[in-house]
Amino acid sequence: MAPDLPPDRRPIVISGPSGVGKGTLYKLLFSRHPDTFTLSVSHTTRSPRPGEQHGVDYHYVSKETFLDLVAKGGFVEHAQFGDNLYGTSKMTIEEQTAKGKAVVLDIEMEGVKQVQKSSIDARYVFIAPPSDEELERRLRGRATEKEESIQKRLAQAKKEITYAKTGVHHTIIVNDDLEKAYKELEEFVYAPVSS
Ligand SMILES: Nc1ncnc2c1ncn2[C@@H]1O[C@H](COP(=O)(O)OP(=O)(O)OP(=O)(O)O)[C@@H](O)[C@H]1O
């Protein structure tokens, strides 16, 4: 088992608006605590893109297999984006936890709501932007998005932030200064188990 494992073994659910810096933050956590964390690998019915690997980027399954797993209650959350289905299987989380890894889930708001209703006992972190303007700057800064997609993501961000204000997360971290936000995340992740 990794010597660096957090005392609280529950999976950590990280959510927040697209472009807020979730990936940047948990990748820092992974690199500063090697072999300790693992990102939960989702199932999808979409085809692998060049360079993607089965079991690494996604578990690629047929629609039939996916729906069968849904019927058996095998997913803690699942959703459809475009024509494709995506989900986090209970087994993936349990297997990784049993292997001695601290499991991190990067999911959007609807997924968070489903996990909260599931049998999985998790810790919830919301990453918030310092301001709407800064979030927009970061989305544009990635330069991977078309204007229409940026507008959609900003509209969705407003919903996510409103949801976070209802107090459903264990912690909200404002990602203003990256190193400061990182320290807050690390402190939360390594906090003693609270009863
Ligand atoms: N504290 C910060 N200050 C300034 N820029 C930051 C900060 N954190 C992240 N960024 C930048 O913001 C951009 C978006 O970050 P990132 O891709 O990690 O977001 P994300 O929340 O994982 O998005 P998505 O959900 O769409 O994958 C990146 O260009 C990243 O370098």
What does this structure look like?
This protein has helices at residues 22-32, 63-71, 90-98, 109-117, 132-142, 147-164, 178-189, and strands at residues 12-15, 37-39, 43-44, 59-60, 75-81, 84-89, 102-106, 123-128, 171-174. It has one domain (12-189): P-loop containing nucleotide triphosphate hydrolases (Rossmann fold, 3-Layer(aba) Sandwich). The chain is globular, with a radius of gyration of 17 Å. It has 195 residues and is α/β, with parallel strands linked by helices. The model has no long low-confidence stretch (mean pLDDT 95). The chain has seven helices and nine strands. The chain is 41% helix and 20% strand. Strands 2-7-1-8-9 form a five-stranded parallel beta sheet, with helices on both faces. It has a four-stranded mixed beta sheet with strand order 4-3-6-5. The site of adenosine-5'-triphosphate has 14 residues, from α1, α5 and α7.
In DSSP terms (H or I, runs of 4 or more residues), the helix count works out at: 7
Domain count: the total is 1
Shape: globular
What is the name of the CATH class? Alpha Beta
The biggest beta sheet is recorded as:
5 strands, parallel
Which CATH-level-2 architecture?
A: 3-Layer(aba) Sandwich
Terminal-residue CA separation: 24 Å
From the alpha carbons, calculate the radius of gyration and give it in angstroms: 17 Å
Strand count: 9
Approximate strand percentage: 15-25%
Question: Helicity level, as a percent range?
Answer: 40-55%
Can you tell me the CATH topology? Answer: Rossmann fold
CATH superfamily: P-loop containing nucleotide triphosphate hydrolases
What is the arithmetic mean of pLDDT?
Answer: 95
SSE string, helix = H, strand = E? EHEEEHEEHEHEHHEH
Strand order of the largest sheet: 2-7-1-8-9
Bound molecules: adenosine-5'-triphosphate
